[in-house]
Design brief:
Blueprint: H1 16-38, H2 45-56, E1 61-64, H3 71-81, E2 86-90, H4 97-101, E3 102-108, E4 114-120, E5 127-131, H5 138-150, E6 152-155, E7 158-161, E8 167-172, H6 185-188, E9 193-196, H7 202-211, H8 226-238, H9 243-254, H10 263-266, E10 269-271, H11 275-291, H12 299-310, E11 315-316, H13 318-322, H14 327-338
Parallel strand pairs: 1-8, 1-9, 2-5, 5-8
Antiparallel strand pairs: 3-4, 6-7, 10-11
């Protein structure tokens, strides 16, 4: 089982001084990028941070939040600021896999010969927004599986590589469940992080009212391009992780795994996070450290990202749900034990 493949710009080993120099360049670029994103997204600093962590890790994210919380705007803003070609797909019950992947059409040339030509679907983008992904049928949802894990699709036996980098940022409305199809565990596990999008604080909402209801709204400016993002993604994988942090990640993930973890915690858990959860958490911790000006992750990074990395990779028992237990509560107790 492998983590998301790195979009490496090079394979030549770098010295420690070279890594530090590139890290400083990345920090400067990320600081400007966060400022540009903040000019369009108000009061969602944690959401922006976790979204950036996902992209810097080379992964995919699932945004969960009520309608009207700027999830679509955030994805559009990320695409503009990071210089990524972005497409958006509105998932509906009648959406077909070919609507996402593309299809072959029969064409007749000037010589009257007929041949099939593949027309690429919207998945051929560097940043794909899958809006309300749980409204599509399981057949259509599964069309993303190969792309999210293997970074290519297969149509009529032919392989078509996706652009690099390639990221899926999906949204899900937790309120309306009628007519929806819950994502299967196999697809949830493909998302590096689940990012919960809360309602904004009063001051942020006041700013939204003032700055978004006028005649003009400035568009965010591009700060990084796709090549620059791939270089930072490669840098993230070069960052050292101390043995104590590796053990902390392992202990934390295994503690909520039934049959292997803490009985006090696992008695509420039907199934727990697998090795991909630990891989995702380790990558995300490296990326978070970089965004905060550090060259190595700390225990604080592990605890900060434990929820986003684990909550969509766990399920509670029926009796626990009947008693009002929640995944968030279990993870909070887990973090307190390791804090």
């Amino acid at each position: 089982m492998n983590a998301e493949p790195a979009h490496r710009a090079e394979t030549i080993p770098l010295t420690e001084s070279q890594i530090e120099a590139r890290a400083q360049q990345a920090l400067d670029s990320l600081a400007v990028a966060r400022k540009a994103i903040g000019a369009a997204i108000f009061g969602q600093e944690l959401v922006v941070e976790e979204a950036l962590v996902t992209l810097l890790s080379g992964g995919h994210a699932l945004f969960v939040g009520a309608p009207g919380l700027a999830k679509t705007l955030l994805v559009d803003t990320l695409g503009r600021v990071l210089g990524l070609h972005a497409n958006r797909v509105q998932f509906t019950p009648d959406l077909m896999p070919t609507d996402i992947l593309g299809s072959e059409v029969l064409e007749e040339g000037a010589d009257h010969r007929r041949a099939f030509r593949f027309i690429k679907g919207p998945i051929f983008a560097q940043l794909l927004m899958a809006d309300e992904i749980n409204r599509a049928s399981p057949r259509t949802q599964s069309a993303l599986l190969q792309a999210m894990q293997e970074y290519h699709v297969t149509i009529a036996g032919e392989r078509y590589d996706l652009p690099r980098p390639f990221h899926v940022l999906a949204t899900q409305n937790p309120l309306e469940q009628e007519g929806t199809y819950p994502l299967p565990e196999a697809q949830l596990d493909r998302f590096l992080l689940q990012i919960d999008v809360p309602y904004p604080q009063r001051d942020a909402e006041r700013r939204i009212l003032i700055e978004t209801t006028g005649q003009e709204r400035p568009a965010p400016q591009q700060v990084i391009d796709a090549a620059g993002l791939m270089e930072i993604q490669a840098l993230v994988r070069l960052m050292p992780v101390g043995a104590a942090i590796v053990d902390c990640i392992l202990d934390l993930v295994r503690a909520v795994r039934p049959g292997d973890g803490d009985p006090e915690l696992t008695r509420h858990v039907a199934w727990g996070p697998g090795p991909r959860a630990a891989q995702s958490l380790m990558l995300a911790c490296r990326a978070r450290a970089l965004t905060q000006g550090r060259l190595a992750p700390s225990k604080a990074d592990v605890l900060a990202l434990a929820g986003p990395a684990l909550k969509h990779r766990m399920a509670l028992t029926y009796s626990a749900r009947a008693d009002g237990e929640t995944i968030d509560a279990v993870i909070e107790r887990l973090k307190q034990r390791f804090g």
